[in-house]
Amino acid sequence: MASDFHPKPHMNLARIVITGVGLTAPNGNSLQEFRANLLAGKAGIEWLDVRYMGRLLAGVCHYDPLKYQTRKEVRVGTRAGSISIWCAREALADGGFDMASLPRSRTGIYIGCTEHGNVETENEIYAISKFNYDTKYWSHYHNPRTVANNPAGETSLSLGVTGPAYTIGAACAAGNLGLIHASQMLRLGEVDLAICGGVSESIHTFGIFAGFKSQGALAVNDVPAKASRPFDRARNGIVVSEGGCLYTLERLDDALARGARIYAEIAGYGVNSDASDYVLPNPTRQAECVRKSIEHAGLKPADIHIVNTHATATTLGDIQECEAIRSVFGQGCPETFINNTKSFIGHCMGAAGALELAGNLPSFDDLVVHPTINVDDLDPACALPGLVLNTPARAGRVDTILNNSFGMLGINSTLIVKRFVA
User: Domain limits at 401?
Assistant: First the structure.
């Protein structure tokens, strides 16, 4: 079924390219380290002591915040803000930007986030509980720490960026939405440089662990590295993780003018909503989102070479996404490989889509597709042609990557990037 997407005649279709990548993941603090661990099958899951709940499995990042922040800045700010600052500055450095000449008023910061503020409120309530809940002990930093725009705001303060800086709340589709929105702002001429992607501080709130546990959707495993196992018959839930990945996006003409290295070009995207359930995914709407992105990119399903799945290792969620993928790609796409990144790093929530895209970008250069790990017994309902399991696969060519990210309340996003050709 064709989508109803039709570009308007006045739409500016300037080519948008990725020129810098900055990230921190549970198994790496740079794209090079992250990619190496994906190809080596190295997961980044560990035990974490969670307030009121004890030891739980989680994806924890181990970057050095003091590389870009003072101790006071780390103390006053939030974990999401700190991750954002790290990723933004790493992306700018990777993109070859001179901080002294950064176009601060023409730079936009668009950061996807699943939720924000829970951590700080939980911490403050816990702190005043030791003083008979006397609010005079409540931190005066609480309000700026908990506003939804905090991660982008902290980043703008750190960089001195005076252009638009705000977060995009789109549940676990937010990482993709950061890039999609940035592309639109660049095409509208609102900014000349966009710092965009997604971040998550989820592991620092016990509420998210408690919520998934109450739903029967929290992963359990005696071996942390084996805990996140999308598509495996023995999968039993989500591993909650923190992380971040931000990109520098520019119009192609600007990138070429400064001699930038180009990782990839934004080819197309799709965003829609299930409008059917608070939590359960809708494979029909997911398939429509994927088709919309492919049509938007001017491609056919057989033109897609890597599909990075959203699959979170919940029993029904994985099956529903596989049903959506099967309905789009069927049996007729022999050059299409399918993989999953959460098997390595767990679910990084608002950062998931941005991190998962990054892990696949090097495939344009090395023609290697990283696998889904921990699949010891493939669920027949998740069997798909081209699914890469446990060891990397070599592709004949990689010209396009399609990245799925879906979220609660039925928000779906699909982003396609392609090999840059001048």
Answer: 268-418
